[in-house]
Write a structure and sequence with these properties.
The protein is of the alpha+beta class. It is built from four helices and six strands. It has one domain: Roll (Nuclear Transport Factor 2, Chain: A). Strand 5 and strand 6 form a beta hairpin.
Length: 127
């Protein structure tokens, strides 16, 4: 009986994967200018630097700051061109955000928190 129970539990957990870095969700959020989705993927407090203006923001403040950027520089495309290796500490990624004739380098540092990767630092700078 305990063997069958152990086998069942092992079988169920074999389908449960720990969370990966949400690259595709972030690509979609940046491409559509969805500031709320991006800030919801962040820690409670995250460091955001946009065009050399840097500060620590709560998720709600981060949403406002990103909405302001997206309203001034609407997205035409976003694509990650580097995805760092996931580790026990976190990960790092670099993408290119394009808005009309301008392009920006987006650097994102993720911190591993439990089974999730949360945005710890986000930097947007002229490319």
């Amino acid at each position: 009986m305990s063997f069958a129970y152990s086998f069942l539990i092992a079988f169920i957990f074999s389908f449960v994967n720990p969370a990966d870095v949400p690259y595709s969700e972030l690509e979609t959020a940046f491409s559509t200018g969805n500031a709320t989705a991006i800030s919801n993927m962040g820690k409670e407090k995250m460091l955001i630097s946009i065009l050399d203006k840097e500060a620590a923001y709560s998720q709600s403040q981060a949403t406002l700051v990103l909405k302001d950027f997206f309203s001034k520089k609407p997205a035409t495309s976003f694509k990650f061109n580097f995805k760092g290796k996931e580790s026990a500490d976190g990960s790092f990624a670099i993408g290119i955000y394009t808005s009309k004739a301008e392009s920006f380098r987006v650097s994102i540092h993720f911190k591993k928190m439990g089974n999730d990767f949360k945005i710890e630092r986000l930097t947007i700078e002229k490319n």
